[in-house]
Amino acid sequence: MAKVHPNVAVPESPAGAVVEEEQQQPTVLTVWRKSLLFNCDGFTVFDATGGLAFRVDRYGSSSGSRRRRAEDVVLMDAAGKPLLTVRRKIKLSLSLGEHWVVYDGDASAADAKPLLSVRRHHVGLHRRASDKTLAHITPLGSSSSEAAAYVVEGSYGRRSCAVRDAREGGAAALAEVRRKESVGDDVFRLVVSDHRIGAALSMGVVIALDQMFGGASSRTSTSLLPRSWSA
Among 33, 110, 197, 221, which is least packed by CB within 10 angstroms? Predict the structure, then answer.
């Protein structure tokens, strides 16, 4: 039986290195599109040694915090501490595209700080074959620019996409989703090469992409939230 955790050789790193710290080597994570808890949807994310790095556990709508919105997906560390909340922004028109905001920590807190906006690329009626854009990522905060700083290109459904600097055409990937051999679409690698995004924020982007395109790869692959239209 194929192993879920990484089977590639990567340099050893200090404990707790799977955070937004400057790194000389890429951080290689294995993402399993399944919660380890019974009767939960979510993600289980392993580090290069097979240890638990992150988790997402989504119970039914009647469970969890009463203050937490149904549109929230919370990324936690191995101990269950909320690191990020990925929240869907409801739009009146589908033509505006799906829009998700990544918050620091638990977004149900009154002082929750928005970090990133992830907006689905609007295709329009005639999409060019050369257009591989999936989404646009904009840093949020008082010092951030309104223009999208990063772009996601490729195919999430095929587990082959990358986050790049939108201001540098053809720039090297800051983070990549890659297929993992012989284990299907529900297990894939997340390779983080740039500290500007970091492991936790990269996983937040993956969660947003999964909500946008989670049903596109197979009949058994669905997003964590109900969808009104398919990718």
Answer: 110
Work out the burial of residue 60: count CB atoms within 10 Å of its CB; fewer than 13 is exposed, 13-18 middle, 19 or more buried: exposed
Q: Using only C-alpha atoms, what is the Rg of the chain?
A: 17
3-state secondary structure of 103: strand
Mean pLDDT of the chain: 78
Q: Which residues contact 196 (CB under 8 A, 6 or more apart)?
A: 174
Contact 162, 173 (CB under 8 A): yes
Minimal CA–CA distance to 77: which of 46, 108, 120? 46
Q: How far apart are CA 173 and CA 94, in angstroms?
A: 29
Look up the pTM and report it: 0.77
Backbone angles phi, psi at 120, to 5 degrees: -65, 135
Which residue has tokens 């596109």?
Answer: 216
User: 100: part of which helix (H) or strand (E)?
Assistant: strand 99-104
* Tokens 């969890």 -> residue: 64
Tokens of 16: 């707790």
176-43-92 Cα angle (round to 5): 80
- Residue written as token pair 């492991």: 199
Instruction: Determine the straight-line distance between the first and last CA of the chain, rounded to whole angstroms.
Output: 31
Torsional sign, CA 130, 118, 193, 207: negative
Identify which of 22, 19, 41, 24 has the alpha carbon closest to the alpha carbon of residue 32: 41
Spell out where 90-199 has E strands: 99-104, 113-120, 133-139, 150-155, 160-165, 175-179, 187-192
